[in-house]
Amino acid sequence: MTSEKNLYTKAVHVRATWTRRCNKVLFASEHKNAGFPTIDINVKPGREHLTMKTMKAFDYVYKHHYNDADWFMKADDDTYVFVENLRYFLSSQNASEPVYFGHTYMQAMKQGYNRGGPGYVVSREALRKFATRKKGLCDDDFGPEDIKFGRCMEMLGVEIGYTTDSMHRRRFHTTPAILSPRLLEQGNYTGEDGALCELINLNTYTISLHELQPYQMYAIEYLVYHLKTYGTTRAYQKERTPTRWNYEVSSEPDLYNRVRVLCWVMTSEKNLYTKAVHVRATWTRRFNKVLFASDHKNAGFPTIDINVKPGRGHLTMKTMTTFDYVYKHHYNDADWFMKADDDTYVFVENLRYFLSSQNASKPVYFGYKYMHAMKQGYNGGGPGYVVSREALRRFAAREKGLCDDDLGAEDIKFGRCMELLGVKIGDTRDSMNRNRFHVTAVILSPRSLEQGIFTGKESTLRTMNGLSTYTISLHKLEPYQMYAIEYLVYHLKTYPVEISDKVSSEPDLYNRVRVLCWVMTSEKNLYTKAVHVRATWTRRFNKVLFASEHKNANFPTIDINVKAGRAHLTMKTMTTFDYVYKHHYNDADWFMKADDDTYVFVENLRYFLSSQNASEPVYFGRTFLQATKQGYNGGGPGYVVSREALRRFAAREKGLCDDDLGAEDIKFGRCMELLGVKIGNTRDSMNRRRFHVNPAIFSPRLLEHGSHTGKDGALQV
């Protein structure tokens, strides 16, 4: 969906990027435009007529292209679609059923509706029902188009399909937070130091992003489809894709140890927690060693002790002093030594891959070469430059006073010093004469589409051939852009990707290790907690029950009829296990109790239990060695009882374990001990727990000194 005024400012870029991967693409504007071209639907211009534009466009598609596809997607001219992931998702769906998929809003009508911005996809049968609707149905031109189309779908019996993944993350996104400058605003996704905590809210197989500028579309094209990172495998779809990429450059397993690279980052006191902290949280983690050089030592960050004057006027002295420091303290820690800025992004795998064919014993340094200021030129400081072991040795052994003045541009002065010491500039261009080090991250800039830079007659990006496939560095990046790169390059996958972290090749583990889970909740928590538990992790169990004070047909909860309140949790637990035995003993091999603020990785639980024997009297959880002889398993993280343990519990003597006093987990643990049920060991081979009382990794207090941090305040492994 586009418009006359957007044809050459938005639609032209959509046509040049992601739509090329669809089987067929149409552009719907107000009327036919043979020059672009757009289809002939002839509707009034303006946002108030988007509903009519949508309805007419779908009628047109049915009339002219019904047999050209199985699925039919509507998107906007500021949407970006990962077509491979859309196709992969749809491959497990049935186009003969009346269904449509998208980013669902549960409002405005009974089943909700799919938002228009991220795009929605209708099945072949849904389109047929729409096109054969009664005359006048769905043809008015009032209200938001996505709501009106959603209401039309509901009236025609077209269901909304489920598009969230196994971790309940959306595949269709209304706004791409990961590409926004607002990403790092306090309270969004950041920790106490301002760094992004995690990328967990972003689906690995994202289908669409909305509200993108054209330059961002080209940035995605480059980072996802053109850039290759050494050692990273991205197996792209082999059929019906214009371009196929093989991302496995080499299977060399020990390159990290064979090509050791130290990086020091030039920063300043004022930039430590606005720039350097994000550099530390992203790309620098892939180096063998990283140092931060500020104006003076800051143990809190930490920065190294070089003690130079602050300000851009003293960058030369900062550079010279830092390289002296590196030689004195870390010469034997690496083979190559890189200097970068706190607004640089380095693809460390590509740097290491490039250096693997170079000789660190030769006096050489690499970077983005400027051919002026001196005979051999110099490497620009912004994109970073890398000096060999021999070059660093020569620098540190220079005559006293040589290269020690503090005037002029640091990269020019360092380049002149290298020339005086007989250190050559190495060629970093690739086989197509493209630079690997980039002075500006043009591909991530709104200026990338300015007429005359890289654009053709239509102002579309002509080619990405000016950008090396094995780019090493980009300069002048904002922190949020660094996280965007992290997501797009290292987290996002486009189908198909070979997953190597498969826990088990057992295809029928779901049926072989049957687990029932009952969730302890309460009447007041049903729609504030339990409803979300039901919508997320519990869906992966073989059977799920919710135990509240009494039966609630609307939710529903099971009929146990106990008193409300925390003081009666023991009775709720005992009564529920009796209920489970009576009604569901043959439905499972293992029986788990969890709370409504617990999260369970069911696949890992099932995998763990696959090596245990449900015929033995045993129960598993997070063990506390107190209160009883063998201890007890804490109720919060949940505990799992075997089939035999449940049988013994249900067959206990009348009155045993039936009082309603004390902590429920301790009382249940005491009951298990009385019945001869043992506590099983749930720790892994490194003695780490599998059941956790509180998820420290999700807490703002995670990085508080003394919790899980080292002396430098960094999270320990």
TrEMBL record:
Cell location: Membrane
Ribonucleoprotein in keyword set: no
Cellular component, GO annotation: membrane
Alphabetical UniProt keywords: Disulfide bond, Glycoprotein, Glycosyltransferase, Manganese, Membrane, Metal-binding, Nucleotide-binding, Signal-anchor, Transferase, Transmembrane, Transmembrane helix
UniProt GO molecular function: glycoprotein-N-acetylgalactosamine 3-beta-galactosyltransferase activity; manganese ion binding; nucleotide binding
Cofactor(s) the protein needs: Mn(2+)
EC class of the enzyme, as a word: transferase
Family membership: Belongs to the glycosyltransferase 31 family. Beta3-Gal-T subfamily.
Role noted for this protein: Glycosyltransferase that generates the core 1 O-glycan Gal-beta1-3GalNAc-alpha1-Ser/Thr (T antigen), which is a precursor for many extended O-glycans in glycoproteins.
Protein name, as recorded: Glycoprotein-N-acetylgalactosamine 3-beta-galactosyltransferase 1
Organism the protein comes from: Ridgeia piscesae (Tubeworm)
